[in-house]
């Protein structure tokens, strides 16, 4: 807002205009006081414009318009001083004939028009293409035509008809000023139709209002000079004249305030030619005057012709207005889903922010959407997006706004709701998408991560802040689990900062030699022999210590560096296992298991890269086991042919965490799998009770029927190992045998040739 002290000089002048009627004082005294008062306000406007034109925080492009405003107020000061001198030469009253000082005053006043026009056109505007510039030129021509017809009908034609266009003050007022006003109409129309950018959106309305008051004041002055030459100037006209000069000064003060204020939000929606109806208003004005003139001239022959022209023009204009509204709706709508787009969402957020209502924003990102696009094609991806948009339409209230921001990003705006209601909406959306949707001949499961940000009543953050908070919460939900929601809080903000720092550090982890490979033994339950090791990567952060894989592996997948990390792990582990194999006694063997993420499986050159690494390190392909999850293959089967190629060279494939994902026999029989890894959650249920061991037994039996090896994970005690042995499980790993070990510790373990037998009769190697 403009500083209050700036209103003081204008308030003093306004009070004097209202409380000092010309009938109570000598005319010379009245006009002298008014002239001096206006001159003082021009000095104030000059000072504010000069400050904005030289403000150190404004860039040269932003300062440029205010240089024109400095010239504008200087010309007003010249106008006021020369007009005062002309009055002084005429006994203190405005002269009726042309004098040199009056000519200087009129020329200075006329010069303010192009200077003000140049200033308004110097403000930053939205960029226009060639076609848009032509359209702008035609619209401005229409506006000038309509405005010119009004000036001609009300001012110029009567002046020329009555012979007022003489070398007199009345001639200058009625002819010269309106010609200058035509230039002003060009400027007003151009600025309104092309739109503004940045801070100009807040400042140009003040300048435009001043320009419109100038135009209306000139029309009134010319009209009253023609038809009421002896009438005293009314106070309201003086106040309007005061405002037309005060508004540019207020705009300059507001520019200085914005420059001194901290950077704020600039996400207000850009107006889509908000005054695009202006040419139609000008058209209606012009034809209205034409019809009125035809009626005055008589019904024959012009009245009927003009009426027909008006009807046709109205029909064409109405059709254009309807098309304009349709185009505006299309610009605010996502073409694929029919939801609102980012522009309409920003408009709604601005409206809610102005109202001060409590509002919640939901940021939604579809998990695994890229895999759908890559594996099934973009048409399938579009079908998923359309299906999810339908879900939003079904689950939201009629007044709620759902928008697609681009790609697989969506947003929901909920008005007058709190945290509980926003969470309920998020859970309702997640519940609705649990059932797979048909895409062509296949069923695709939609999963989503939702972030929720809720504003407090009367303290709504800016649209950018609210959406940013929802995005932070959404990424927190994505890191924690698939198809879940997270509410924004200071804790999520802290986690987001930590995650951002983690991402930066992870990009340098491989080159900085911060990654380590540990090896967890896999033993044969029947003999206690160490038959394989699983390579597990650990990140030794210089300040955080050891970062758990559950924290940095999803980040690595998000950044796309999981491929580099995976290739590094395979290279290091293959070399290390090959060195161990060379030291083993004859008849002993050692296999290597390496985890592969879904992101790695999507690499087109997966098989070639793995085989090249094995060739380079000397590890036999038959000694390598690739561990993958069920969902990695089911969600995207593009890796299946490459896995078949690797199996053709002897590489085996293990299905990790079996029983926790799809666990479908149909998938299991068609996927290239050699080993089932029984998840630790089923192992934990083993307690000697038949019910507790039912699932584990079923998985082991299934592996035997399908001729698949079985490896149990998470063995914590001898009783679990014994029960798994009795159930027929061949191999196992877990803390009961050994924790993940560094290479030197495992080297010592491999050198032990005699297993140590526990009282239960189950063999375990020392050091576990």
From TrEMBL:
Tell me which residues make up the GGDEF domain: 357-490
What Pfam families does its record include?
A: EAL (PF00563), GGDEF (PF00990)
Write out the GO MF terms.
cyclic-guanylate-specific phosphodiesterase activity
**Keyword Transmembrane tagged:** yes
Cite the SUPFAM superfamilies for this sequence: EAL domain-like, Nucleotide cyclase
Protein name, entry field: Uncharacterized protein
Q: What residue ranges are annotated as transmembrane?
A: 7-24, 30-48, 68-89, 101-124, 136-155, 175-196, 203-223, 278-295, 301-318
Q: Which PROSITE patterns match?
A: EAL (PS50883), GGDEF (PS50887)
Q: Which domain of life is it from?
A: Bacteria
The UniProt record lists the EAL domain at: 499-754
Keywords per UniProt: Membrane, Transmembrane, Transmembrane helix
């Amino acid at each position: 807002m403009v500083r209050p002290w700036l209103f003081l000089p204008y308030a003093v002048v306004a009070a004097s205009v209202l409380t000092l009627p010309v009938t109570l004082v000598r005319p010379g005294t009245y006009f002298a006081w008014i002239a001096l008062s206006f001159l003082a306000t021009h000095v104030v406007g000059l000072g504010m414009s000069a400050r904005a034109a030289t403000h150190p925080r404004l860039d040269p492009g932003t300062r440029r318009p205010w240089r024109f405003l400095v010239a504008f107020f200087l010309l007003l000061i010249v106008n006021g001083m020369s007009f005062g001198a002309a009055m002084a030469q005429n006994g203190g009253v405005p002269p009726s004939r042309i004098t040199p000082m009056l000519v200087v005053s009129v020329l200075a006043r006329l010069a303010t028009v192009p200077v003000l026009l140049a200033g308004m056109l110097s403000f930053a505007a939205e960029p226009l293409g060639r076609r848009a510039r032509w359209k702008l030129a035609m619209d401005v021509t229409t506006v000038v035509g309509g405005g010119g017809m009004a000036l001609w009908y009300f001012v110029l034609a009567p002046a020329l008809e009555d012979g007022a266009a003489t070398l007199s003050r009345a001639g200058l007022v009625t002819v010269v000023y309106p010609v200058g006003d035509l230039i002003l109409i060009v400027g007003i129309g151009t600025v309104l139709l092309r739109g503004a950018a940045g801070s100009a959106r807040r400042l140009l309305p003040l300048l435009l209002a001043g320009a419109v008051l100038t135009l209306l004041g000139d029309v009134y002055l010319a009209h009253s000079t023609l038809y009421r030459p002896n009438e005293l100037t009314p106070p309201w006209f003086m106040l309007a004249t005061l405002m037309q000069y005060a508004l540019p000064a207020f705009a300059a003060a507001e520019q200085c305030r914005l420059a001194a204020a901290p950077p704020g939000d600039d996400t207000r929606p850009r107006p889509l030619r908000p005054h695009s109806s202006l040419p139609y208003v000008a058209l209606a004005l012009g034809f209205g005057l034409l019809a009125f003139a035809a009626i005055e001239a008589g019904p024959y022959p012009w009245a009927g012709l003009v009426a027909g022209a008006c009807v046709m023009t109205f029909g064409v204009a109405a059709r254009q207005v309807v098309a304009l509204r349709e185009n505006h709706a299309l610009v605010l709508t996502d073409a694929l889903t029919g939801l609102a787009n980012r522009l309409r969402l920003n408009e709604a957020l601005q409206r809610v922010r102005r109202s001060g209502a409590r509002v919640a924003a939901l940021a939604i990102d579809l998990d695994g959407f890229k895999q759908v696009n890559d594996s099934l094609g973009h048409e399938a991806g579009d079908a998923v997006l359309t299906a999810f948009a339908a879900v939003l339409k079904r689950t939201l209230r009629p007044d709620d706004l759902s928008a697609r921001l681009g790609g697989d990003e969506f947003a929901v705006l909920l008005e007058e709701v709190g945290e509980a209601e926003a969470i309920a909406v998020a859970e309702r959306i997640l519940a609705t998408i649990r059932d797979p949707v048909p895409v062509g001949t296949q069923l695709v499961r939609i999963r989503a991560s939702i972030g929720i940000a809720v504003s407090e009543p009367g303290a709504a953050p800016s649209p950018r802040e609210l959406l940013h908070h929802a995005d932070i919460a959404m990424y927190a939900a994505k890191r924690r689990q698939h198809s879940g929601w997270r509410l924004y809080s200071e804790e999520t903000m802290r986690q987001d900062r930590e995650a951002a720092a983690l991402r930066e550090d992870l990009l340098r982890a491989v080159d900085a030699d911060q990654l380590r490979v540990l090896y967890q033994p896999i033993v044969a339950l029947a003999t206690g022999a160490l038959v394989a090791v699983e390579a597990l990567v650990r990140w030794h952060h210089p300040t955080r210590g050891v970062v758990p894989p559950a924290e940095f592996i999803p980040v690595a997948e998000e950044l796309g560096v999981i491929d580099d990390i995976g290739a590094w792990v395979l290279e290091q582990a293959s070399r290390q296992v090959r060195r161990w194999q060379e030291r083993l006694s004859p008849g002993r063997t050692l296999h290597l298991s390496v985890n592969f993420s879904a992101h790695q499986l999507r690499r087109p050159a997966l098989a070639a890269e793995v085989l090249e690494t094995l060739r380079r390190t000397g590890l036999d392909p038959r000694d390598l086991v690739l561990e993958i999850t069920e969902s990695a293959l089911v969600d995207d089967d593009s890796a299946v042919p490459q896995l078949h190629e690797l199996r053709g060279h002897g590489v085996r494939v293990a299905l990790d965490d079996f029983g926790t994902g799809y666990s479908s026999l149909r998938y299991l029989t068609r996927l290239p799998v050699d080993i089932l890894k029984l998840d630790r959650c089923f192992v934990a249920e083993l307690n000697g009770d038949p019910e507790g061991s039912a699932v584990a037994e079923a998985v082991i039996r299934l592996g035997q029927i399908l001729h698949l090896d079985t490896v149990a994970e998470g063995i914590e005690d001898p009783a679990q190992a014994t029960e798994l042995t009795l159930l027929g499980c061949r191999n196992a790993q877990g803390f009961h045998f050994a924790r993940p070990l560094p290479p030197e510790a495992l080297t010592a373990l491999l050198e032990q040739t005699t297993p140590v037998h526990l009282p239960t009769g189950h063999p375990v190697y020392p050091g576990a």
